[in-house]
Automatic annotation (TrEMBL):
<dbReference type="Pfam" id="PF08811">
    <property type="entry name" value="DUF1800"/>
</dbReference>
<dbReference type="InterPro" id="IPR014917">
    <property type="entry name" value="DUF1800"/>
</dbReference>
<protein>
    <submittedName>
        <fullName>DUF1800 family protein</fullName>
    </submittedName>
</protein>
<feature type="signal peptide">
    <location>
        <begin position="1"/>
        <end position="26"/>
    </location>
</feature>
<keyword id="KW-0732">Signal</keyword>
Length: 539
């Protein structure tokens, strides 16, 4: 942990006086392999045996601190033109994303940026930016750059991103002109509040909704606030242009203001706050974002979603409250420190223990992308050409980076798919992705990427076929036996806690496979783990 001299005062008091209430995982001992595997499930694109071995040399905090220090592996500067293409195409961006997710050393930053991309959503679907490949990658790099920075800075960079400006139509947003039937566009103003900062309803520090005297949830904003913020976001357009109405497109640099097209009047925002007339676009923007950033609902709103993306879909109120407190104050008086927030999420006792002793289901449904990324990392999958060139991945996964169907992401954090879960007050957000069609397609995809793509056993692989290296697992099977192989698979897929009934099923399966090649047997066993209901839940 921290040394006493350098420990933030709040954490020191918490540990010495209120330790039972802190929820801070304070182990000084290096992680054992099962603990390392669980941490990597939450904080990377999936544990590998080599990663588990390396992480086992450190405490959880040491591993996180090491990851926080690593420079960002950026995307935009690594996009290549694919074969038979003259310029980068959307597949070029996706290929770069996959390569970095599979191989980059800064796994924690990449995983957090992926989580942020599902909160601060930009998508290339149906908005004219589909072919702006570098611009979209640049937006993703913006999320990477601020993954461990301050959320207030991230709010500003997202607001002024030309990609976000196009996506939510506030690039070129103009002041009111009644004669020409022009009104400030409300799109970004609404989504900034509803999705990116404070949500629809006021929250308590533990993420529960505040209620009025009639036990009704209290809205965080009204139509007047939407209109006020819409006026704030007028007068901004592409950088480097001299003509607001006919801007020279710049998809990379932050947008710039034109005072002549900025709404000059008062702006009525939240809680009775009114921005005075006659301010510059920069003044209005700064004060409006500062106001949102200061709202008490923001820390639990964002903290809970990050917990859901990394650790568990149904965090206890106490867990949310502890992380939200760190968001509000990192211990040194700083609000919005995402590095401190991520650390608090992963070091919380409930994250590390799996809600031991808490009467609440722990874990989260694995997103399809995370399943494939984990399997490819475990099997060191690669194609003969070196490209990750899959045209139909979205058909099986129902998701792809920066390709959600709307600003509401692929799934909502409060999605609850069944009456029984709803009555229990529980959610399973990722199940909003599930359809009968893509469930079958995903199963076929996983079969193709394991049993159907064993390196050394595919006679004539295509240049883009991802070949899985099962030879190390085949060696374990031959030299050390089935139980040792299942122990390895248990560590990789379940943090060493493979359910007994699944292990028995896999043992029976191995016996029934007969005298096939060891690599095939290893592949079949891994495939059946990947499609098992037990593996579907990250715990």
């Amino acid at each position: 942990m921290f040394g006493v001299r350098t420990m933030p005062k709040r954490l020191l008091i918490c540990m010495l006086l209120l330790q039972p209430l802190c929820g801070l995982y304070a182990s000084q001992a290096p992680l054992n392999p099962t603990e390392a595997a669980r941490l990597l499930q939450q904080a990377s694109f999936g544990p590998t045996l080599s990663d588990i071995q390396a992480t086992s040399q450190m405490t959880a905090e040491q591993w996180i601190d090491w990851q926080l220090r690593l420079p960002a592996t950026t995307h935009a500067d690594k996009i290549n033109t694919l074969p038979e293409q003259k310029t980068p195409v959307p597949l070029s961006r996706l290929e770069t994303w996959w390569r970095i997710a599979l191989t980059a050393p800064d796994q924690l930053r990449q995983r957090v940026a992926f989580a942020l991309s599902e909160i601060l959503v930009v998508s290339d679907q149906g908005n004219g930016i589909n072919n702006r490949v570098i611009a979209l990658a640049n937006y993703y790099d913006l999320l990477l750059a601020h993954s461990f920075g301050n959320y207030r800075d991230l709010m500003q960079q997202v607001t002024l991103s030309p990609v976000m400006g196009i996506y939510l139509s506030h690039l070129g947003n103009q002041k009111a002109d009644v004669q020409n039937n022009i009104r400030p566009d409300e799109n970004y103003a609404r989504e900034l509040m509803q999705l990116f900062t404070i949500g629809l309803y006021q929250l308590n520090p533990d993420g529960s909704k505040k209620l009025d005297d009639a036990d009704n949830p209290i809205p965080t904003y009204d139509q007047q606030a939407i209109e006020g913020f819409a006026r704030v976001f007028t007068g901004w357009t592409s950088a480097g242009t001299s003509n607001f109405l006919k801007p020279k497109a710049d998809y990379l640099k932050p947008m710039i203001p034109f005072a002549a097209y900025h709404e000059p009047g008062e702006k009525h925002l939240l809680n009775g706050v009114v921005l005075p007339a006659g301010q510059t676009p920069q003044q209005d923007l700064t004060q409006a974002l500062d106001l949102l950033f200061a709202q008490p609902s923001l820390p639990p709103f964002i903290s809970k979603q990050l917990i859901q993306k990394l650790v568990t879909s149904n965090p206890s109120p106490a867990y949310v409250a502890r992380v939200a407190q760190v968001f509000s104050d990192n211990g040194d008086g700083v609000r919005g420190d995402l590095a401190a927030v991520v650390k608090a999420i992963l070091l919380d006792e409930e994250a590390r223990s799996g809600f031991s002793g808490v009467a609440r289901p722990f874990g989260k449904i694995r997103e399809p992308l995370l399943k494939t990324a984990h399997s490819w990392r475990v099997t060191q999958s690669a194609s003969p050409s070196g490209h990750i060139y899959l045209r139909t991945l979205a058909d099986s996964h129902n998701q792809a980076p920066l390709q959600s169907p709307s600003v509401f992401n692929f799934f909502r954090p409060d999605f609850s798919p069944s009456t029984s879960l709803q009555q229990a007050g529980l959610v399973a957000p990722e199940l909003q992705l599930l359809t009968a069609s893509n469930a079958l397609n995903m199963q076929n995809h996983l079969y193709t990427q394991t049993v159907g793509s064993i390196e050394g056993l595919v006679a004539n692989p295509t240049q883009y076929q991802m070949l899985a290296r099962f030879s190390p697992f085949a060696d374990v099977l031959q030299r050390q036996g089935l139980n040792t192989l299942l122990d390895q698979y248990s560590l990789l897929a379940f943090g060493g806690a493979m359910p007994a009934e699944l292990r028995l099923l896999l043992s029976d399966l191995a016996a029934g496979l007969g005298s096939i090649a060891p690599a095939q047997k290893a592949a079949y066993l891994w495939y059946f783990i990947l499609i098992s209901p037990q593996y579907a839940v990250q715990q």
